[in-house]
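user: Here is a favour to ask of a fellow structure person. I have my own habits and do not want them to colour yours. Could you put it straight underneath, so I can go through it closely?

assistant:
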Amino acid sequence: MFLKVNRDEIIEGLQKSANIIPAKTGAAFLRTIWLQCEDGNLNVMSTDSNLEFMGSYPAAIEGEGLAGVQGRAFYDLVKQLRSDQGELTIRTDDENQNVLVEQKTRKYKFPVNDPEWFQKFSTFPEDATVFWSGDFLHEIIEKISFCISDEDSMEAIACIYMVPRDKMGVKTVEVCGLNGHQFAMLDFVNDDIFAMLPEEGVLIQKKYLTELKKWLTADEIELAISNKRLFFRTGDKRETFTLPLSYYQYPNYNNFMAKLNDPDVSTLEVNRLDLMDALSRVALFNTDSNRCAYFSFAGTEVTVSAQGQETGTARESIDAAFTGEMTRIAFPTRNLIEILNHFNSDTVKFTLTGTEAPCGLTGADDKNYNVIVMPMMIQEETYYTEENA
């Protein structure tokens, strides 16, 4: 293996490759970045045994070959070298025992990992591919992933769920996330994605979404699905990112979604930023044993309050439009702030189905986006009163 390359041509690929491998722990073969000179390009490859990254970058190839190096150290070195100091020469020595990196008078040596460690990477399926907006996929992940469980042991609810639905003749794709006390769903229309997805949908574990988001850009991507993996490729076909699909039974969420359409629900419409500001101040009075913000409804305003034995009480009133019979409800303060942060609408609408039943949030400017949060049980306790002041 012998090549010459500009540092800036490969640094982004090395970063993406290093992102998915363990930094220090784990098997040595999983900490490897593989460098391959082939057809006038330098191919950079890495895997953590689940995720796979492959990138191909232009280089002056003087000798083809494959070599694996300690990935994090190799990336950290190239990151610190400056492109204005000249191109890099990367080659294996005569015995193929070391990878030598040179830039003018600078010389570095990396031991070559056992070539038997190299396992063939998944091949991108060339049939039935779909081009999609990387920016939109990033937005979908952002709006859904915060509602997905972080515990791998939770199986299906540790995954994002994408499933095709025919809704009154409209071919819609539903993307969902659930963690037991919160649920988020975003619908969108894309005939190509609808046709590509299997009828039962696909599940992707949350732990893979973080690295997928790092890899995505605003540019168009090419998407393909096999029986076991989901494939993403840049529009210029230079980079491929693949991840495994999961096969669990996703919970039936139609029952609690249907509750939002009950005739006796209460509704609250309030300015999103005003409510977030009030909640951030009220949260200062929450404690480990009382993490709630209490909502009380009266006329054309909603009162938000909190109390704690050591912190005291907080109470703020905000202009709002309320309909229904409910008088009081409690939500986990920090969770509600996080939910509101994922909306763009000036005004959000709460659909309240009961003091301990699902509550839906929507916004006029967040089309086809629904979040459900479970209220908390109200405990009638008074820690701090005017009489004690």
